[in-house]
Amino acid sequence: MTGSGRNTMTVFVTLLLGLPCVIAGVAQQWPRWAWAVLAAVLLTGAVVVNRSMSKDDGGFPAHLALEPDLPLPPVPRQEVRINGVALPSAVADYDFLFSATVRWNLLESADGPALGNPSGLAVDTVLQRARNITARQPPSRSALVQHQLDGALATMLADPGGRLRAMALEVSLCLSGPDLERLTKLSTVRKEQDVWEHERNHERNKRDYLGGDVLKDTGSAVVWWLARNEDRIEETVDRIGVLARLTAAANNDEVAPEFQHLVPSPSLPPEPDLGAQAPVGPEASADRGEEAPGTGRRLDDVIAWFGFGPDDPDLALFGTRLLQVAEAHSKTEAAGEIKARFDGPGPERPAERPPTEE
Length: 358
Fold this sequence. Notes:
The chain is α+β, with helices and mostly antiparallel strands. It has twelve helices and four strands. The protein has helices at about 5-30, 30-60, 120-135, 140-150, 175-215, 220-230, 235-240, 240-250, 280-290, 295-305, 315-330, 330-345, and strands at about 80-90, 95-105, 155-160, 165-175. The chain has a four-stranded antiparallel β-sheet with strand order 1-2-4-3. Helix 3 crosses helix 4 (about 140-150). The model is unreliable at about 270-295 and about 345-358 (pLDDT under 50).
């Protein structure tokens, strides 16, 4: 017991013994000399009690004495840094590059031989935990996987053998430069392919709609035109002949008999001007560019009905679309004439006359 504790106990014992005597003296009205004797007795008893407690302190074991708590010594930090370790991803041949600070502490275990390389076992434990996560993730999500590893490896967990506990700090996960460039190119090509596929499907649907529905027959073409021009009934009636010719050309067929009277007969070529000097013989036929009535004349009427001129820049595109409609319905003859009309060679230049001798 310390000195302050001893003194407190002495005062307590003195008051405990003196209080009954004081009460008895007040009740019996002791004389003054009796009070002096009582004070001397109490003082002597206090000294005796204090000395007796001092002797007991000498025999108290030192290791059981009360002492202030001492600060615990700091635990030595056991850690190692690893950089650029390849971990597999969900895509073959695209590995993550893993870097982290591995921290561990040994566990008390009496089984097995002493651990000679605890850092190697700690690194292997952390890499196995990281591998279980990265092997299920796509390589294009390296930033997201890094945050997942930060949370999964932030806890001290024991290795399968129970020899130590390990965790990882300052986790970094990335892809190599060439792999990242390849993934970017593949992503760009895949997006462009999706756009192209949608455009092709849209064009195919439009051809099927025009060839299989709108231009299936003359009646369908008339209904389609009237649906788009509800307030132009008289004009629709005037265009039935043109729609009949367009339907026949799209289906590589002749105009239906019931619409023949609506199709104007081909006009005759204009008479040549006899006043002007014109070449005769084969050269005259080449210069006139005469064309027999038939599918070519009907095709020219359709082009004129759509409002295309000979020098219109969209005429070639219109011919390509019309050819696609004919091919979609297996109208090979009409397709051949349309192709010859738009892709064939132009009219031949007249041959030059040999100079005449004067």
